[in-house]
Every structure is written in C-alpha cells, then in structure tokens.
From TrEMBL:
Enzyme class per UniProt: hydrolase
Keywords: ATP-binding, Cytoplasm, Helicase, Hydrolase, Nucleotide-binding
EC number of the protein: 3.6.4.13
Organism: Novosphingobium malaysiense
Protein name: DEAD-box ATP-dependent RNA helicase RhpA
GO molecular function list: ATP binding; hydrolase activity; nucleic acid binding; RNA helicase activity
GO biological process: response to temperature stimulus; ribosome assembly
Length: 448
DNA sequence: AAAAAAC
C-alpha cells in the first residue's frame, strides 16, 4: 500500500514524498479514500497514529478546487490547544506547498490583528481553538456560512476541557450541507451524542492505541519519597543515557521550580506550562526542538499530541492524576518506531493513581531497580572535582542482557570512597521519613 | 487535588 493508491493528486504526492513519507499509516490508508469521496468520518485514534495527515492530505485536494472569498473560510479545523492548532498549521504548510491555499491560525494568546487581516483577505482553511474563534465570530470578523468542511479533532479532550457547548454553537453556524470529520481517542457518551447530531452516515474507523502498548517504550515506576524526587531525577538524567527528555509535573508551580533547580545543577533545562504567554511557550518549544535545551519540564499542556522527534525519555515527576494523561505523556517518547524509556515517580500518596494507570494500560509497570542501593546520594555527595559526575550505568529494560559487570571497575573505585567519607560530611537531606524498601502496594499486581 | 482555553 502506498500513498499513490489512495487517490491523492500528483502535486500532493510529491509534497508527501519530499516530506519523507512513502507508506500511509493504517488510519491514513483507511480515512483518505472516504474523505476524498466527501463522506463524513469518525476516526477513533490517538495522536501518534498519523491522524493529522489523514485529514490534512485529503482536505488539500478537496480545497484545491474552488475559490476563496473574503471573511468566508471554506473549511475549519478545531483543536483543543494552541500548540496542537499550530502543529496542524505546520502540517498544512508542509503538505500544501504545491497548492495555492491560504490558511489562518486562530488561537488565543496572540494579537488578533494578523488573524483579522488574513480573514478579510479570504482563507481556504481555518485552524482554530474554540475560544478565539468564537471571539472573532462575535466581533463579526468571520462568516461561517461558506464552511463546507469541518474537522473536530481530539473531541474527547475538548469534552474534558468543557468545549462541547462551544463546539455545538460553532456547528450550528456552519451550513448543514457540509462534510464533517470527528477524531477522538475514546467515545464517551457526550461525544457519541455530538457525532449523532452533527455527522451524517459517517464512515467509522478505529485504529489501535499506539503509545502504552507500544513495545518500544520501556516503562518503569520509581518509588520515591516526595522530598527526594529531584535527587532521583538528577541521578536518572545522568545515568540512563538520556539524550532528550520531557519531565512532566502535575502543577505549573512544580514545573517552574523544577526547571530552575535543574538549571542550578547544570542541566540544560527549559519549561513549558500554561502560565507562560504564547510567544514564550513557542520559544521554549523551539529551544527544545533545536536542542538548545535537552530537558523540557512540562505541564500537561505538552502531554497530548506534541510531536518532537527523538525524545529518548519521559519522566513523570508526578504520577498523573488521570490515567489517560499517563498514556499521552508516555507517548511523547518512542515515536516513529524509535525506542524510548518512561519513568514514573510514585510516592505513597500515588498508590491509587498508579493502580488506575495499570488498569488502563493493562499491565503492571515494573519497579525500576537501581544498580546502587542509594543512587541519588551516591551522585549528590560526590565532590565536584575531577571525577565524572556519573554513577554506574543502568542499561535497558532487560536486565539479563545487561553486560553485567562492564562497569565493575568503576563500581569498585567508587564504593570505598563513599564509605571512607566521614558521616558528618554527608548530611542527610531533609526527609519525610519514607525512604525505605519498596512498599507492598508497588510490588503486588494492581490488577487483582 | 490540575491544566487547558477568550478578552
């Protein structure tokens, strides 16, 4: 199966080819032909399945015919977050380079001026987050009556974010005679209701969930007391062959503080969360993408859909409260068939959350075994002299295959040193008292 | 318990 078999135009095939793609993903293979035949579509798919191209490609060919008019966009793509909207816009540019199509990206957090100007000149495709779209509509800057193609992307996330009333009101402004595509990772009842109401006789496509069942990603949980999280993280960052990592925290304040702390310890760390203004978010993401920083501390704004190549590690500095978020976070690594590693820090308070994750992903996540008994301290207390700040290396998931004592010499040279050190020069870090062995709740299967 | 999204 190749892209050429799907009925796309030659100009488009050329753009796809020069983007480096030869073979469509399952969702692309299934979705593109019916979309080209102007059918409505429901796509059950996660990010990372090639979902975006499955609607962007046929849309480009559909829009290639016809003319744009001022204030009347011909198509609309709704996205839950600004970052996702921007990413879809990038895709449109990449694949639409051989077509004369105009696009407008309507997202909040940036000035309206350029967006209004683009609209007044006429656009073929509108890529928008609901808030800004509604705002511009109420100001009379857009007419949606010419919008004959609608994509509702990440519908379940829109639901989580309370966007469903906005979506309904936007749908009501579009002509009833239109083509609608809805993508969602899951089909909760409100989304089912939405699709029954706004889609007609849709083609239904479902593709496998990619991320957590992805065997490319080695997943571990790391029991840790809250006060030692930073030390343990630094240890893992230094010893687990981390090239590029995203560190997810549950709170924006944690993201900020952690990034600051990592920088203080000499790591090239950046941060992204919703308290930063949009230009700063974009700039941070760029710094991460170009490799100016190789560690990105992030809130869940970066959990879904964010497509950065070559992320070797995901760390859940906090266990996510919702198991779905785990799936999305971990899916930032192991992309495009690469291998990835995901570590989830688990404190005693996270017992329930981690059980929910394991219930959802369908298996117990193994506890990571450090080569050293007290890894963090071993690294932290070392003098900052000539010795490399590096503890023993811990290799991949498969302990049996680990060249067991390749690092033996290094181990030997370290251990006596640590023991010789006088006790008082090794002040115990502030602790909340839980530093002991792996507690039972982490050992037993959560899938009783 | 958080984060996200319009001004």
């Amino acid at each position: 199966m190749s892209f050429a078999d799907l009925g796309l135009s030659d100009e488009l095939l050329q753009a796809v080819e020069s983007a480096g793609y030869t073979e469509p993903t399952p969702i692309q293979a299934q979705a593109i032909p019916p979309v080209l035949m102007m059918k409505d579509l429901i796509g059950i798919a996660q990010t990372g399945t090639g979902k975006t191209a499955s609607f962007v490609l046929p849309m480009i060919d559909i829009l290639a015919h016809g003319r744009r008019r001022a204030l009347m966009p011909r198509s609309l793509i709704l996205e839950p977050t600004r970052e996702l909207a921007a990413q879809v816009a990038e895709n449109f540019e990449k694949y639409g380079k051989n077509h004369d199509l105009k696009m407008a990206l309507l997202i909040g957090g940036v000035q309206m001026g350029d967006q209004v100007k683009a609209l007044s000149e006429g656009v073929d495709v509108l890529i928008a987050t609901p808030g800004r779209l509604m705002d511009l509509f109420e100001r009379g800057k857009i007419l949606l009556t010419g919008c004959e193609l609608l994509v509702i992307d990440e519908a379940d996330r829109m639901l989580d974010m309370g966007f469903i009333p906005d979506i309904e009101s936007i749908c009501a402004k579009l002509p009833t005679n239109r083509q609608t595509m809805l993508f969602s990772a899951t089909m909760p009842p409100p989304i089912k209701k939405l699709s029954d109401r706004f889609l007609s006789n849709p083609k239904y496509i479902e593709v496998a969930r990619p991320a957590t069942t992805n065997i490319n990603i080695a997943q571990y949980k790391v029991p840790v007391s809250p006060r030692k999280k930073r030390e343990v993280l630094r240890h893992l960052l230094r010893t687990d062959d981390v090239s590029t990592a995203i560190v997810f925290c549950n709170r924006k304040t944690t993201v900020r503080e952690l990034a600051k702390s990592l920088k203080k310890h000499g790591f090239a760390a950046g941060e992204i969360h919703g308290d930063m203004d949009q230009p700063a978010r974009i700039a941070e993401l760029e710094r991460f993408k170009d490799g100016q920083v190789n560690i990105l501390c992030a809130s869940d704004v970066a959990a879904r859909g964010l497509d950065v190549k070559g992320v070797s590690h995901v760390f859940n500095f906090d266990t996510p409260w919702h198991p779905d978020d785990y799936v999305h976070r971990v899916g930032r690594t192991g992309r495009g068939g690469a291998s990835g590693r995901a570590f989830t820090f688990v404190t005693p308070d996270d017992a329930e959350a981690v059980q929910n994750v394991e219930k959802l992903t369908g298996g117990e996540i193994p506890v990571f075994e450090f080569a050293d008994e007290q890894p963090a301290e071993a690294v932290e207390e070392k003098p900052k002299g000539k010795r490399p700040q590096r503890a023993k290396k811990v290799e991949g998931a498969d302990r049996a295959e680990r060249a067991p004592r390749k690092e033996t010499t290094e181990m030997r040279s370290e251990e006596p040193r640590r023991e010789r050190r006088p006790r008082r020069s090794e002040p115990e870090p502030a602790d909340d008292g839980w530093n002991g062995p792996v507690p039972e709740f982490l050992k037993v299967s959560a899938l009783a």
